[in-house]
Write a structure and sequence with these properties.
By secondary structure, the chain is an alpha+beta fold. Helices cover about 40% and strands about 25% of the residues.
């Protein structure tokens, strides 16, 4: 007889109602972390580091070049400023020399003009030796040259009388003396005169009537003994027409 088998009917209890443990597939395993990510990150860091370093080098080089360019420009500006100052100084020196030369040229032109005028109208001294008049019966006489301006300058140690007479007036004065109408000192100055000065110590006068006429004489007398010191000169200045008593 076969052994009896005990068949039990499963009963529902707390153990049968417990959750089933999760199924673990025999093909599942722990995932392996990739080593590419850190490698790529390292290369990226190196690349950006190199790029940053290159950028810094370029920036530093650019700053260095700008500094060098600025220094060169400053040096060039200093050199140009120095050259400009030197040129300005030379210009001022040249301007001074030019002004001096122009002044000398103006002075030379003035001298040339004076010499030209002097050559066209030369002045000559004709009487400068002192002469004595011994009394009222004496006189000094000199012809006044024609075509000249007559510069009459006289000084005397005492009163003297001076007249510029035409030839006709001088003839009348001689007749007055010869006729006994008066002394020489009186007759020479009272028969008419182109110009006259009575009892003076000096005369300074420019006579122009002889510039176109050869008909005048200078006569000097005194009431007593005197010495006359003349400084008479003439300037060539011919008139374009007859003058004085010749007109």
């Amino acid at each position: 007889m076969s052994p009896a088998m005990e068949i039990t009917t499963p009963t529902t209890d707390d153990a049968s109602l417990a959750p089933v443990e999760p199924y673990s597939s025999p093909f599942e395993s722990t995932p392996v972390r990739s080593t590419w990510a850190p490698l790529n990150n390292s290369r990226a860091r190196r690349f950006w580091t190199a790029a940053l370093a290159a950028a810094l080098l370029l920036t530093a080089g650019g700053v260095g070049m700008l500094y060098v360019d600025d220094t060169n420009n400053q040096n060039a500006n200093r050199a140009l400023t120095s050259e400009n100052e030197q040129l300005t100084g030379r210009t001022q020196n040249l301007q001074t020399e030019l002004t001096t030369t122009q002044n000398k040229l103006t002075a030379s032109q003035s001298q040339v003009s004076d010499l030209t005028a002097a050559a066209a109208h030369p002045t000559l001294g004709i009487w400068n030796v002192p002469q004595a008049i011994n009394g009222s019966s004496y006189y000094l006489a000199a012809g006044v040259p024609d075509t000249f301006t007559y510069h009459l300058k006289l000084k005397s140690t005492g009163p003297m009388s001076v007249s510029i007479l035409s030839i006709k007036q001088f003839g009348l004065a001689i007749s007055c003396v010869q006729s006994g109408a008066g002394l020489t000192n009186w007759c020479m100055h009272h028969q008419g005169a182109a110009n006259g000065w009575l009892s003076v110590a000096s005369v300074d006068y420019d006579f122009h009537l002889a510039e176109g006429c050869a008909a005048y004489l200078l006569v000097i007398t005194a009431a007593g003994p005197v010495t006359v010191t003349p400084d008479v000169s003439v300037t060539y200045n011919p008139a374009s027409a007859a003058t004085g008593t010749c007109a």
